[in-house]
Amino acid sequence: MSRKQKNDNFIDKTFTVVADTLLRILPTSQNEKKSFSYYRDGMSAQSEGEYAEALQNYYEAMRLEIDPYDRSYILYNIGLIHASNGEHGRSLEYYYQALERNPSLSQALNNIAVIYHYRGMQALEKERFEISKILFDKAGDYWKEAIRLAPTNYIEAQNWLKMTGRE
């Protein structure tokens, strides 16, 4: 069953109708249309927790998509799935690739910071204080950049930076 047939709530149906209409009227190539369709299906599967299906759709979208900006969002979403599965190393790889194509992707910067902060907390629990400081400093650097790009977002990160003297 195609992803289009599974969308049974109003928002999903509305998004699908709008996206399909835009695909028909916008002057885009057939590959761009296919790529967007795979991306949309990937987002839908991801939102339902169907990560394997989402990854298949994202990989197909990556195969077809040539625009670096659009590829950055596909890579970012692949990173989200790996982070959800606890694969933080793989997640970081995809976030870095997303940032190479779109340095203004503040969400990727934030998620990288969250992973470094998490790893810093793990090091702290093991009393590896020097390593935890390095990881916390890296988290701070990524959060500062995310906040610079999106000053009204990441309030908790802003508070953490202030409380730890990293602002």
UniProtKB/TrEMBL annotation:
SUPFAM superfamilies on file: TPR-like
TPR repeats: 35-68, 35-68, 72-105, 72-105, 120-153
Record membrane topology: Peripheral membrane protein
Protein location: Plastid, Chloroplast thylakoid membrane
A single cellular component GO annotation: chloroplast thylakoid membrane
Biological process annotations from GO: photosynthesis
UniProt keyword Membrane, yes or no: yes
Pfam family, one: TPR_1
Keyword line: Chloroplast, Membrane, Photosynthesis, Plastid, Repeat, Thylakoid, TPR repeat
InterPro entries assigned: PSI_Ycf3_assembly, TPR-like_helical_dom_sf, TPR_rpt
The keyword Flavoprotein appears for this protein: no
Family statement: Belongs to the Ycf3 family.
Functional note: Seems to be required for the assembly of the photosystem I complex.
Protein name: Photosystem I assembly protein Ycf3
Source organism: Dichotomosiphon tuberosus
Gene name in the database record: ycf3
